Amino acid sequence: MKRQRPTRPEPLTEDEAFRLPKYTIGVVSKLVGLPPQMLRRYEESGLLEPSRQDGKNRLYSDQDVAALEEIASLTDEGVNAAGIRHILQMRRQIRLLQEEIKVAREKEAKANAEQTSQEGPGERQSDNSEQGTR
Prior knowledge:
6 helices
């Protein structure tokens, strides 16, 4: 019986790599310049939810690190935990809406391009000449 070769996993997309938990609390503490206890407090107050390794050790992704930098910046500006939570929620909604707008604009551009390609070159010229005579 012939052994099958294990298939190689697909490489991670940029977004998947950004969300992949990979840093321990000590590493993240050094990256963002905050003591580990502060990171734990942010988690306790619901501002961040790192992944857990075997239910014990916290693992942070690049996305978590970016959120922590944002949280630390807002804290430095004097915003409390409740305010930070609302600000982060609004920023998430804004990013989602911006993505929806981008997708809608791409669809519109594609539809316009298809419509233009379906029209013959003579039709477009006649449309322009009719507009000039009105």
